[in-house]
Design goal:
Number of domains: 1
Distance between the termini: 31 Å
Shape: globular
Helix content: 40-55%
Radius of gyration: 16 Å
CATH topology: Arc Repressor Mutant, subunit A
Largest sheet: 3 strands, antiparallel
Number of helices: 4
CATH superfamily: Winged helix-like DNA-binding domain superfamily/Winged helix DNA-binding domain
Strand order of the largest sheet: 1-3-2
Order of helices and strands: HEHHEEH
CATH class: Mainly Alpha
Length: 111
């Protein structure tokens, strides 16, 4: 059996996936990448070179906030949490994604 290929993220979807991963609880960067991999059944892997610039961008937009804490392995880590504006943005991006994916499915399903 062929090894499954990891999927590259469509431009603009990483922000939505980060917001979704923070919906339930604050997490540090590595935890966010693990959560995305788990939720996608290991199909999506977010590299640090993509993750941390996105986290900084989301923080600048005030969709997430950060504070220093101690990770489960007793190391200092920056924990990110969703703000009220981030919750609203997640709803808007999810609705937009559903419209877009429905439209793409219509095109792919047409003869």
């Amino acid at each position: 059996m062929a090894k499954e290929e990891k999927q590259e993220l469509l431009q603009g979807t990483l922000d939505m996936l980060i917001l979704k991963s923070l919906q339930l609880e604050p997490m540090h960067g590595f935890g966010i990448s693990v959560r995305i991999a788990q939720l996608s059944r290991e199909a999506l892997l977010v590299e640090q070179g993509s993750l941390y610039p996105a986290l900084y961008r989301l923080e600048e937009q005030e969709w997430i906030r950060s504070e220093w804490g101690v990770s489960e392995n007793n190391r200092k880590a920056k924990f990110y949490s969703l703000t009220a504006a981030g919750r609203r943005q997640l709803i808007a991006e999810t609705e937009n994604w559903q419209r877009l994916s429905s439209a793409i499915n219509l095109v792919l399903g047409s003869a």
